[in-house]
């Protein structure tokens, strides 16, 4: 007999910090996903990761033992790509890893002598080597319609400096201040800077607000719910959908609350005891994802 105390019919599941930590699954997570499949509880994997493309992320999940398909995965990078397509941006300046850049195949982001600097948008991803002063300063110049090539510097028309009469737009997948990182050669495992501080840097310097498209925006969760309903041919009320994550703000934040999703926090990944000391407490808290699934099924 199903325990399903929360009366959930579908799930939106965070990845890093919830199902896995770096390249290691959290305890019992692989088996928990299989239990959901056996119980026929539909779900979508929802990731704010900007380090790799969707295909590489799926490959990484497979290596850890998780079965996952492209239709079951939604990422903040894919949401960025969709926004670029909807807005008709043809030349975004991409600050992200080479793998993440492959998520934007139709964008001519490489510079040639002819079109150097003619960018219509800036998109940030979390790739430490790419977040250099030179790259961030170039992004700043693009957003301020300042020249970024020698050919532009001779232009007297302000609008011609960035190759268009439309001001470039700053796009970011999310504003997470920090992330849980595995140990490296220089630092032990622990919290590390996220993409948020770099987004705030450009916002502060330019006086412009970034368009945020990943979790926890309402639009991202709406897209995920649409994907759920399309994949399974079912209609699900928002109150029957649970969103599970280790970040009370960026996994379970504003958009999830607006839509009335059931918000489940797990004590893994970037979770810290103070995570529960918030004005918007989660509906339930579990030690890990496997414990949540055991309570659900």
TrEMBL record:
Q: Which GO terms describe its molecular function?
A: phosphatase activity
Q: Which residues form a coiled coil?
A: none
User: Which Pfam families does the protein's record reference?
Assistant: Hydrolase_6 (PF13344), Hydrolase_like (PF13242)
Q: Which domain of life is it from?
A: Eukaryota
Entry keyword annotation includes Cell membrane: no
- Alphabetical list of SUPFAM superfamilies matching this protein: HAD-like
Give the keywords, sorted: Hydrolase
Gene Ontology cellular-component annotations: cytoplasm
**What PANTHER family does the entry give?**
4-NITROPHENYLPHOSPHATASE-RELATED (PTHR19288), HALOACID DEHALOGENASE-LIKE HYDROLASE DOMAIN-CONTAINING PROTEIN 2 (PTHR19288:SF46)
Q: What is this protein called?
A: HAD hydrolase
Say which species the protein is native to: Kwoniella mangroviensis CBS 10435
């Amino acid at each position: 007999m199903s325990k399903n105390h929360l009366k959930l019919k579908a799930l939106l599941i965070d990845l890093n910090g919830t199902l896995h930590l770096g390249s290691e699954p959290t305890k019992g997570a692989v088996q928990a996903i299989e239990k959901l499949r056996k119980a026929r509880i539909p779900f979508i994997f929802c990731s704010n990761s900007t380090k790799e493309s969707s295909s590489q992320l799926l490959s990484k999940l497979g290596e850890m033992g998780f079965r996952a398909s492209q239709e079951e995965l939604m990422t903040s990078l894919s949401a960025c790509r969709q926004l670029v397509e909807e807005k008709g941006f043809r030349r975004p300046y991409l600050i992200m890893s080479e793998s993440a850049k492959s998520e934007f195949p139709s964008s001519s982001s490489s510079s040639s002598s002819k079109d150097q600097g003619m960018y219509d948008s800036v998109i940030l991803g979390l790739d430490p080597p790419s977040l250099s002063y030179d790259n961030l300063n170039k992004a700043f110049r693009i957003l301020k319609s300042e020249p970024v090539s020698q050919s532009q510097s001779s232009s007297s028309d302000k609008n011609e400096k960035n190759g268009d009469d439309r001001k470039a737009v700053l796009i970011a997948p999310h504003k997470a201040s920090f992330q849980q990182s595995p140990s490296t050669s220089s630092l032990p495992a622990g919290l590390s800077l996220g993409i948020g501080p770099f987004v705030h840097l450009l916002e502060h310097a330019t006086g412009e607000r970034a368009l945020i498209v990943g979790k926890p925006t309402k639009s991202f969760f709406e897209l995920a719910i649409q994907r759920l309903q399309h994949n399974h041919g079912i209609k699900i009320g928002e109150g029957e959908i649970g969103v599970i994550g280790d970040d009370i703000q960026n996994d379970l934040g504003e958009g999830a609350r607006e839509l009335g999703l059931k918000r489940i926090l797990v004590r893994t990944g970037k979770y810290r005891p103070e995570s529960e000391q918030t004005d918007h407490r989660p509906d339930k808290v579990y030690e890990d994802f496997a414990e949540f699934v055991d309570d659900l099924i």
